[in-house]
Design brief:
Helices cover 56% and strands 12% of the residues. It is of the alpha+beta class and 546 residues long. The chain has 2 domains: 34-168, Lipocalin (Beta Barrel); 196-211 and 257-545, no CATH class. Helix 5 runs parallel beside helix 18 (416-440), helix 11 (291-298) runs antiparallel to helix 22 and helix 13 (332-344) crosses helix 20. GO terms for molecular function: lyase activity.
């Protein structure tokens, strides 16, 4: 009996020692586990809010364990997950709580009024993970990519801060786009090239390419492509195409059509310059762009930024689905930047082409002064022109309707307050918003593509062809015109609708050849008709390709 008691006592003692040792071991593991934080530098994060990327990057993931209630949190940068932990022997068991998450995706329904993004809810359950501590590393067995190093809370905080700095997220593409933005601002300030456009666009390029942390299903609401951000809301005016009509309203309120009314035949030069649109359209098709994309690219040849934005927002918006089931590319940013860039460079691009295609004798031609235009003619013109162009191309009404409405406000003389608002405050505000949002859309990972480079090449070619087409048709018209009503072929170059820069180029070149030869009023006729022509061309392309 005594031997039995000894055996029971020895067994209890051994169990006590074992439990004591196990408790001490668990206590040591618990102490180590709850001191500081555990960090994993894991690959696999897609650096784009909508998951649009062909690469992944490494991001820090931080575990923090609490001793009080055996809870833990995992900050995966994109989401913060929580759960409870237990220790069984040397195993650490992590049980995650299910978490409600949101997924962001593009809204591929062009007729939806819910905005450019869909937000869908989901419940994510990471389940259970089992790990152990070895050499100050929290290991998860065969899932070595989850292994976490032990760091102090201060170090973990610094690493987390570093993740969100621009230095940690910068790429060569960001730096290149920043140089382009600075170059635009330089051109605007140093050489006065379209400063009202290039300074907002250049600043927008800088804003859009500030390197910030982005990841799929993670939304800081900062970047232009992040749903709900301020820049995203501003960019909706580009995506939905309502900035351009407001720009046209202001242009109409500032435009004097007298030169065109007094000499209607010069409208032909404005139409001739639109050859650049259709040549570029064919070139884009040849380079492999889909017809809607090629149509949006072609309008760059009209030298009209708002029209280019309007048409690309309808045809190349990254939303519309073609008959073959393929979604069109989003080319709004490259097209807008190309159109405005070449508009600003009109004083550089056009003079060599004009000199090449005209003789000294032709450049010295003086044109008959335009006749005076009555108030009734000025009032009737926007009404008749609206009805005529609308019947020819109803799809151009959003642009031309606002253009002629703005002009009627001006010429009626009884709505001076409205005309003043449209031609000053309104167009200035829209120009700022349009420029900054178009510039910001040139985010490096979206903008720096082969397609963008092709678009810039096609844009340059389209300006050359448009200018040459206008000049050559001017030569033909001069040859056919009566001797007492000659036409200086240089004014054909102003048929591109870069108002009023292309007309100024002709004026300057006329004065360089003959200080008494003032061509500005004559050049404004094809210049303003070019605005109308490019909008009509856009409407025709839209009706065929939509």
């Amino acid at each position: 009996m005594r031997n039995l008691y000894k055996m029971i006592f020895s067994l209890v003692l051994m169990l006590g020692v074992c439990f004591s040792s196990l408790a001490q071991n668990n206590g040591a593991i618990e102490k180590q586990l709850t001191e500081g934080k555990w960090i994993n530098h894991q690959d696999g994060y897609v650096p784009n809010a909508l998951g649009v990327s062909d690469k992944t990057v490494k991001r820090y993931k931080i575990f923090e364990f609490k001793a009080e209630n055996h809870s833990f949190s995992m900050d995966s940068i994109k989401q913060r997950f929580t759960g409870h932990w237990t220790i069984e022997g040397n195993k650490i068991i992590l049980k995650f709580n299910p978490k409600n998450v949101e997924h962001f995706s593009k809204n591929t329904n062009p007729n939806s009024a819910s905005g450019p993004y869909w937000v869908t809810a989901d419940v994510l359950d990471l389940g259970t993970r089992v790990g152990h501590i070895s050499n100050d590393v929290l290991k998860f067995g065969s899932n070595s990519k989850y292994d976490c190093a032990h760091e102090s809370s201060a170090v973990a905080g610094l690493r987390n801060f570093w993740e969100f700095t621009g230095f940690a997220n910068v790429t060569p593409g960001h730096l290149l786009m920043m140089l382009i933005g600075i170059f635009f601002i330089f051109l605007a300030i140093k050489y006065d090239y379209e400063p009202l456009l290039l300074i907002p666009i250049g600043t927008g390029i800088l804003i859009g390419n500030i390197p910030m942390f982005q990841a799929v299903d993670f939304n800081l609401k900062l970047g232009i492509y992040e749903p709900g951000s301020v820049m995203s809301y501003l960019y909706s005016g580009v995506l939905q195409g309502w900035y351009p009509p407001l720009i046209f309203l202001g242009i109409g309120a500032m435009t004097d059509f007298s030169s065109l009314i007094s000499n209607p035949r010069l409208m032909i030069l404005g139409a001739a310059a639109q050859i650049g649109i259709f040549v570029t359209f064919l070139g884009a098709l040849y380079l492999g762009f889909a017809p809607p994309e090629a149509g949006a690219i072609g309008i760059i040849g009209g030298a009209d930024g708002p029209t280019a934005i309007f048409l690309s927002s309808k045809l190349a918006n990254g939303v519309n689905v073609m008959a073959n089931g393929v979604t069109v590319k989003n080319l709004i940013g490259p097209i807008a930047i190309a159109a405005y860039s070449y508009m600003a460079l009109v004083p550089v691009i056009q003079p060599p082409i004009i000199n090449l295609l005209t003789t000294k004798k032709e450049r010295l031609i003086k044109m008959k002064p335009p006749r005076a235009v009555s108030r009734l003619e000025k009032i009737m013109f926007p009404i008749i022109a609206l009805l005529l162009t609308a019947y020819i191309s109803p799809t151009s009404v959003p642009l031309l309707g606002m253009l002629f409405f703005g002009n009627l406000l001006k010429e009626s003389t009884v709505t001076a307050r409205l005309a003043d608002t449209a031609s000053n405050a309104l167009i200035n505000i829209i120009t700022i918003l349009l420029g900054i949002s178009v510039g910001a859309s040139t985010q490096a990972d979206v903008f720096l593509t082969k397609d963008s480079m092709l678009i810039f090449g096609l844009g340059a070619a389209s300006f050359v062809v448009a200018t040459a087409g206008g000049v050559m048709f001017g030569k033909i018209m001069n040859w056919l015109s009566p001797k007492d009503r000659p036409i200086n072929p240089m004014i054909g170059a102003s048929g591109v609708s870069a108002v009023p820069d292309s007309a100024r180029v002709v004026q300057v070149m006329g004065l360089e050849n003959d200080p008494t030869n003032h061509l500005l009023m004559h050049a404004m006729a094809p210049n303003v008709s070019g605005v109308i022509g490019s909008a009509v061309a856009a409407g025709i392309l839209l009706s065929f390709l939509m």
